[in-house]
TrEMBL record:
Pfam families reported for this sequence: NAD_binding_11 (PF14833), NAD_binding_2 (PF03446)
Molecular function via GO: NAD binding; NADP binding; phosphogluconate dehydrogenase (decarboxylating) activity
Species name: Macrococcoides caseolyticum
Keyword hit for Oxidoreductase: yes
UniProt keyword annotations, A-Z: NAD, Oxidoreductase
Name of the protein in its database record: 6-phosphogluconate dehydrogenase, decarboxylating
InterPro entries referenced in this protein's UniProt entry, alphabetically: 6-PGluconate_DH-like_C_sf, 6PGD_dom2, 6PGDH_NADP-bd, HIBADH-like_NADP-bd, HIBADH-related, NAD(P)-bd_dom_sf
């Protein structure tokens, strides 16, 4: 089975900050498409094959990965007349690594099944560092037999891949992931700001607390960037706001309240449009430094 999947023609749609690095881990000759061709330039120079439309990727590939920005992008790429499903063929496998709506993942799966196409929702966590190092965590929903079949490919850009159930399960798991990060980011920013206002050596504080019970991925990987005033995006703030909005929509459907998630979404929403569009999620620290 492993040998079979590696012989298949593979496509990749969405070569931004995350997608580009993921594609580089998957293989040497992918059929690629991105809305802005320039963002795929380095992949083209490495020998990957540019396609002018998603339909062209569908025509050339047996398995297609997608890594897009918003649910609206996912819906367009998969369900538009010139999208993957309408131009796909029986037996193809589509793997969407975008963080998107669980409901949309279920809808796409239903439409794909009508044509004998398989779709997995497989959102990832680990940011730009995980994508570069091939150590992303992947959460998968969809047909389990198809998951078992393509897992060797997903393993190429991940260090942890877990199957959770039917279509939409991967997206629900990613929402749980983002909810955990949302409140953790506030705690990280407030901890650093408190240490700063207390007149402490913040670098020493960070080195100490990151090794104890307060330790987290954000504290180890993003807090050092804050101290360097490096807010370059490993994961864009506006994409994080999108994720939190999806999670809040899901909580309404479930009839539950998550005050921590609501507060985090409110604080991120208060940032300037420029910060949302150009910086990484750790920019939340500037909420405290600029507001006081």
């Amino acid at each position: 089975m492993t040998r079979e999947v590696f012989k298949m023609k593979i496509g990749f749609i969405g070569t931004g900050v995350m997608g580009k690095n993921m594609a580089e881990h998957i293989g040497d000759k992918l059929y690629i498409y991105n809305r802005t061709k320039e963002k795929a330039r380095s992949l083209i120079e490495q020998g990957h094959i540019w396609c002018d439309t998603p339909a062209e990727v569908a025509a050339q590939s047996d398995i297609i990965f997608t890594m897009l920005g918003y649910p609206a992008d996912v819906e367009t790429i998969y369900l538009a007349p010139d999208g993957l499903i309408n131009n796909g063929k029986q037996g193809q496998i589509f793997i969407d690594c975008t963080t998107s709506s669980p409901e949309l993942a279920q809808k796409i799966n239903q439409e794909a099944n009508k044509k004998g196409i398989y779709v997995l929702d497989a959102p990832v966590s680990g940011g730009d560092i995980g994508a570069k190092n091939g150590t992303l965590s992947v959460m998968v929903g969809g047909d389990e037999a198809i998951f078992d079949r393509v897992k060797p490919l997903i393993d190429k850009f991940s260090s942890a891949v877990t199957y959770f159930g039917d279509a939409g399960s991967g997206q629900h798991t990613k929402m749980a992931n983002q909810i955990a990060i949302a409140t953790n980011m506030i705690g990280m920013a407030e901890s650093l700001y408190y240490a700063h206002r207390a007149g402490l050596d913040v670098e020493k504080v960070l080195e100490t607390i990151s090794k104890g019970a307060a330790g987290s991925w954000s504290l180890s990987h993003l807090a050092p960037r804050i101290l360097k005033e490096d807010y370059a995006p490993g994961f864009y703030t506006h994409h994080f706001l999108k994720d939190m909005s999806i999670a809040l929509e899901e909580t309404k459907k479930m009839g539950i309240e998550l005050p921590g998630l609501e507060l985090s979404c409110k604080l991120y929403s208060s940032l300037s449009d420029e910060l949302k569009e150009t910086t990484g999620t750790h920019v939340i620290y500037q909420y405290y430094t600029q507001a006081r």
